[in-house]
Amino acid sequence: MLKVGIFGVGHLGKFHLNNWKEIEGVKVVGFFDPNDAAAKEAIGQYDIKRFTNIDKLLDACDAVDIVAPTTMHFGLCQAAIKKGKHVFVEKPMADTLDEGKQIVEMVKEAGVKFQVGHVERFNPAFLALKNITLNPMFIEVHRLAQFNPRGTEVSVILDLMIHDIDIVLKLVNSDVKNISASGVAVMTDTPDIANVRIEFNNGCVANLTSSRISMKKMRKMRLFQKDAYIGINFLEKKTEIIKLKSPEDGDVFNFDIETPHGNKTLAIINPVAEPVNAIKEELLSFVNAIHENKNTAVNEIDGYLAMEVAHKILEKINNVPKFV
Asked: Which CATH class is domain 122-276?
């Protein structure tokens, strides 16, 4: 039985608790949260023990799930790793790059399992592409959200865009050559809307737009590669592929088009997006990595690289004016 301790039982922490309760072979031994109101609600709803001492909770568990504010991530990760506990921590894994580097070094030295909560890796729309060869040379991303005070202790880059940064880095698998960025603080003291262009050494270009002050929600990524277009709708959990038809495509919807080089047949494919719970899947993958002694799906290096790009973007957005 894997004993898990939860740090943070706020909005997202409760989602995690709901899913931990459904994972076999796991016992939630308790939680730590300095907020009395949140703690009282968690005790009443989940009938679990509240710890008021961090070390005592760490001593009672094998692994921790850190769903606390970003500013607390490093201290909690450090305390857990020093005690040899496996760590799942929400994105971004730390508040600063120096903290991220220290975590990477600590994990390597301690030999514990460490996973960062980049939940979009487990989105059904993205998982539907697991058997598709992806080699994008141009990527267009829009992640728009309505304003919510929760999460505004960090910029929209570290709050929302970092999801897409992680996905893009995984897809492109090439070093970053250049970053251009612009952003504006509207409702908070940090950028609430930003547009970013990332150029990679392999020639791929990614344009990312993120906003947390939009009237509507959108989480879309479009990939353009040789002979194919792939659309990923993370919000509606749908995926579409339009490509030159090949014999391997079988009986799919297709149509002919005229090009300067003759007629070509295009196929439209909609990979099946299995209706899975992304949060449960990421927690389950963390548990399996521990039991099977294998690499986590989103390890500390992945988490750091996404942070590194995010902070480079923030460096480009200097002296942002605030609208009043």
From this structure: alpha beta
